[in-house]
């Protein structure tokens, strides 16, 4: 490595952010120096663990998105398919309006809560 | 006069909180942009909600409801559902990436200066599309409470927002926006309850009357296309995925201490939004009974502010109007500060490299352009313009962030192609819907609310162009890093 080596120029924000996280930019961008014989196995194991966690998190994210899509298309489809819901009233309010105005928010919250709980579990399992 | 006084008090309170924030700011660029990450999670969620609940929610939602019917509430559902997607897809990983802005993330993940520039340009497009309706809201509200011409409110809003941002940056914005969430919730919710009680049983019954017209149909049609289900789905796609790609929303998660809190903050935002969105519907429903003339001769976006005076006469009427007007002002002040911050970040950091002084200039420049664009925009429905901003974000940054975070195979070429196709398709369709008059049918929907085809198209282009290419060696570690706890 010589003093005139070309370095990557990044935005000051990115550099500061990466420095704050105690991560070096070089390690991210370029293949690292060959590790010693003992470290090699350790690094491989860490990478494997990270890959496994990534796959599990991705599966969870896909499931959450599918649930979200199901809720939104399902609710709108239901309201579109059953105009009779407008004739049904609950406490003076048409049922279809009530479903649209208030029913979706608790369900959205539930989906998000389940996701966050599971994502944190996955991270805990991976950390231990 | 009471309205002006209330708005004046709100501005004064915002300034005081902003100045206190300035004192806490060390004037370095990251502090200016993301408030040093020392913001408590609860306050952070409130600030995010405060920034997110814009004129579109406070004024536009009730206005659109009055004009097109109960189905307009799908906007609110979509705005909230967006945070489920944010919590699931981007909040944690974006925080771990350490990048402050979307262009920063693109640089981190793809290592291409070209993509950074491209992203910065798209940030400008989205932010201006979003700022114009906010300033329009300021103009119509000020006109309504004081009789001042429309342009006075627009210019005033531009001035106030750029001065407070240029002085304090993001840290002061966090406190101010948290405060504004409370102002919006209280100043919209309390008058809503009061109006419902005061309107009387007859009016309540007729507000809830379900008739067989299109108004009561719980789906949102655009421009009488005759395809309400398609229109609703397209809108939901735009708002849900648009929230994932909105630059000022993304920027906010960096004020969380860790990725874990960033995700939890997103869930907190869902609670705060769900709570808020119970109330704009009240104004839309009562507006149909008390201010139906707005649909014919007036601006439906003003219904929230016009309604209290129509229901309650005398002093109490003007007091309520003043309260609601102050709430509406809080809405576009806090949203525009966040938007302007992201816009200035894009201008000064990603297009031109510069420090805090230049950033301040960028704030002023960005606000000036937005004000000039807003002056001829008085006739545009607030929510329609905001819907376009969401559609552009959903067709550009959403695929970039989602694929960048969850797929190691994304290449710079694929991302660039997808971004260009997405931004051209979404803005092109919106322009075409303004300039042309297609016959009723699905084409109307696909132009006026283009997310239904532009989002899948952008994803497809990014994936198809990336597949033959080879991502660089460090791509996998860049992706895995986003998901490693700690």
From TrEMBL, chain B:
One of its GO terms (biological process) is plasma membrane acetate transport. CDD domains: SLC5sbd_u4 (cd11480). Keywords: Cell membrane, Membrane, Symport, Transmembrane, Transmembrane helix, Transport. Pfam families: SSF. GO terms for cellular component: plasma membrane. Its main location: membrane. Belongs to the sodium:solute symporter (SSF) (TC 2.A.21) family. This is Cation acetate symporter. It comes from Streptomyces hoynatensis.
